[in-house]
Amino acid sequence: MRLQKYIAEAGIASRRKAEELILAGKITINGKVAEIGEKYADGDIVLVDGDPIMTTEKPVYIILNKPSGVISSAKDQFKRKTVLDIVGNVGTRLYPVGRLDYHSTGLILLTNDGDLAQKMTHPRHGMEKSYIARVANPIKPEDAAAFHQGITIDGYKTKPARLEIIDKSARQAKITLFEGRNRQIRKMFEALGNKVVSLQRVSMGKITLGDLGSGAWRHLSPAEVALLQMGGGAE
After folding, report:
1. How far apart are CA 160 and CA 223, in angstroms?
2. Which helix (H) or strand (E) holds 199?
3. Could you give the residue numbers annotated as active site?
4. What's the whole-model pTM score?
5. pLDDT, tens only, 212-221
6. What is the pLDDT of residues 35-58, one digit of tens each?
7. 47 Cβ partners below 8 Å, 6+ apart?
8. Phi/psi at 211 (nearest 5 deg)?
9. Which of 83, 115, 89 is closest to 217 using CA atoms?
C-alpha cells in the first residue's frame, strides 16, 4: 500500500496532508526519510516527526472448512491455492492456526491475534483436536491400544491419543490428538500397516466444524472466542 494511504488509514492525516508531510521530510520509514511514491509493507517502522504510528487492529477470528487441494499456510511458493485465497480480503492480515496437509480437509482457524494463536499451538497447552479418518483396511481392535500407548514415527513416540471405531466396516474412526506433528495420523496408521484414504478435522478444543460446508467460512461468535481465550478451547 502507498505510504500516504497507510498514514491516512492510521488516522494521522488525510492523504493530501500525508503527502505534504512526506515532502516536508517529516516522515521516515525504517530509519530513512520517506519519499513520495514509497510503499508500506507489514513490519515497516514509520515515524511522524520522530513518533511511531500506533495502530490498533480489531481482532478477527474465522473458522474455515478447508477443502482438499488447498494449502493451509499463508503463502505457497508453488502458487497453489491457500486458505487465505478462499477467505479473501477481510481488512487485516490473517494467519492460519494449526496446519492441515494438502489432501486433508476440515477445520482451520484464521486470526490476526498472534497471542491466542501461539497459545493454541504451543505443545505445553496440549489442545485437543479431533479428526474423522477413513482407512483402506479394517482397523484392528489392538490399534486403539497402540494409539493410546504411543506409536514411534520419525524417531519420535507420539503422545497418548484416542481412537474410536465409528462404523461397522471398521474402516472409519474418530481420532483425538493432543499434539500436532506433520502428517501424524497418516504416519501412525502407516506404522500399523494401514493407509488413510481421507482425513477431516472436525474440532479444535470446543470449537467444532458443525454443518459448515466444504470451502465455506464464518466469523466465530463471541461465545466461541471466549472459549478459546479461556484456554485455547481445550477441555
Report:
1. 30
2. strand 196-204
3. 101
4. 0.75
5. 999 999 999 9
6. 998 888 876 788 888 887 765 568
7. 27, 28, 29, 53
8. -100, 20
9. 83
